[in-house]
Amino acid sequence: MTLLWKILLGIILVGRLGQGQDLLEESLEQIAVDEGAEEGGQEVEEPEGPGPDVTQPDDRQPCAMWMGGVPGTPGHSGKPGRDGRDGRDGSRGEKGDKGEAGEKGDPGQKGDVGPAGPRGFPGNPGLKGARGDSALSYHSAFSVGLSELVPTTNVPIRFNKFFYNDQHHYDDVSGKFRCILPGVYFFTYHLTVYTKDAKVSLYMNDKAIMFTYDQYQETNVDQASGSVILRLEAGDEVWLQVYGDEGFGGVYADNTNDSTFSGFLLYPAIPDPAQRR
């Protein structure tokens, strides 16, 4: 029931309550008159006049329709209504003061490696380094030959014919090349084979590095050759020798046929400047 209906109902009840009070007062006065007549022993004569007109309708209504009852007790409070719809967002408030810094958190996990950045600008040139030793100051080379048939086997071949040996790194007494400058060397030999087979090996520090075998053909002059690159340290020795018995000593030389042995330094093992100090 809406508020307007409640107000209208209240007005109607107040009006009916006033009419009922007036009727109650008239009834009480009539009762008092009737009691007084009975006590005096006199009969009250009804006034003369026309009697009630039964043809006229009676406008009076039952008591329940015109007399209000006692107001009832207030009813119980109703159940709470449902929540209303959310209101619209208000205007944004002013910025608050900066809060205090919190405690430092635990370190996070290492992230993935990011993409390579753009190439930077060239840096400034560095300081000029100290002057080093020239590679041209490192020389080691020899080239020697035979002048006759090799007389013995299983010993270093002593080449006694010198084409080049300015540094004297080849020793004609021992028949060995002795390394003075450490580095990488190239060795080669070209041998004439005559009268018998030839088996020749190149040795380095009492270890055979490579072998060459030539089988002599009668009425022929054969040739046997070989070459190798070795890294040597100071003090290493390299030489050629015939291995086996005298039947394999066919290495030969004369005025028109040469057997040669040569070697030279390709590039030296230049020490690091820090080590030279």
Keywords:
single chain, alpha+beta, 10 strands, 27% strand, rod-shaped
What is the makeup of the main sheet? 10 strands, antiparallel
Helix % is: 10-25%
Please report the distance between the alpha carbons of the first and last residues. Answer: 113 Å
Helix/strand order, N-terminal first: HHEEEEEEEEEEH
Put simply, the count of helices is 3
**Structural class, from secondary structure content?**
alpha+beta
Q: Give the radius of gyration.
A: 72 Å
Strand percentage, roughly?
A: 25-35%
Structural shape = rod-shaped
The average pLDDT value, as a whole number, equals: 80
How many β-strands, per DSSP? 10
Low-confidence stretches: none
Summarize the structure.
The protein is built from three helices and ten strands. It has helices at 3-40, 63-66, 273-276; strands spanning 141-145, 161-164, 170-171, 176-178, 183-204, 207-214, 222-232, 237-242, 249-252, 260-268.
